[in-house]
Amino acid sequence: MTVPLPLADDAAAPLVKLGHLDELWFQVGGTVCNLELPPLLHQLQPAHHSFGFLDLATVERVLEESVPLGVKEYYFTGGEPFLNRDMVAILEATLRYRPGDRAD
Fold first, then answer.
1. What is the three-class DSSP state of 42?
2. Contact by Cβ (8 Å): 69, 20
3. Dihedral sign of CA atoms 43, 85, 73, 35 in order
4. β partners of residue 77
5. Please, what is the average pLDDT of the chain?
6. Helix (H, G, I), strand (E, B) or coil at 73
7. What is the pLDDT of residues 13-63, one digit of tens each?
8. What is the DSSP letter of 65?
9. pTM of this prediction?
């Protein structure tokens, strides 16, 4: 069930400081997919590019920001993550943060 926030039209959404995060998901593949999928998944089709690839520099910046939050697991998703030309470099950068190696 979803409950909308009671905001006035000109009010900004409230911000909540994030103190801890166990896992972090990256949408590296956007909506780009190399497969023809059923109509219910129309947003994930070869010709649908409404949300592009996440670049390596952005991933590296967010990885750095994730350390103080205690992230232990990183996940990669999208249409098809390996269509992102930076995917191998993204995985290599993530492995430098030794995910799964931290005990809290």
1. coil
2. yes
3. positive
4. 27
5. 77
6. strand
7. 777 777 888 999 998 887 776 666 665 555 555 555 566 788 999 999 999
8. H
9. 0.69
